[in-house]
Amino acid sequence: MEVIPMEVRLSLSPPRRTTYRVSDPTLIGVHRLLDARPEWRRYSGTLQCRPAAARITVSLRPLIELPEWPEYRAASSADQRIWDQMIRALSQHEDNHHAISLRLINDFKADVERATTPMDRRTMRRRCVQLTRDHVAEQQAYDRRSAHGANEGVSLP
Fold this sequence. Notes:
4-stranded mixed sheet; elongated
């Protein structure tokens, strides 16, 4: 069995931010449109962990997608305040998802690089699979704890 000294290379992009439109003249109507979606918001992206000859390359290409309300300027100042609070909380919630990704990746890198015994290819692959599983599990656990952001102020009347 070939034993390989380890290096972890990271290729981490900042989140690409996009929006989608929820068009209704009222905040209540916007809320209904958002509730009709599977999720109001989304932190997604590709986490790849690829073992190679003497290294593991971990890459992350995140996407944060938030709603945009085209009728915002025509809304009452009270509705604008509610929307602004929700969007700030929602943006922070999605940023927290990204922070979880970065923490897991950096912990993985530190753990692999401080290992006292080199890893064979099979072990490298197992570690990559585990990183991917941990990433999914931690993101889901955060959403459960925060009720997908509702416990952090992501709500509309």
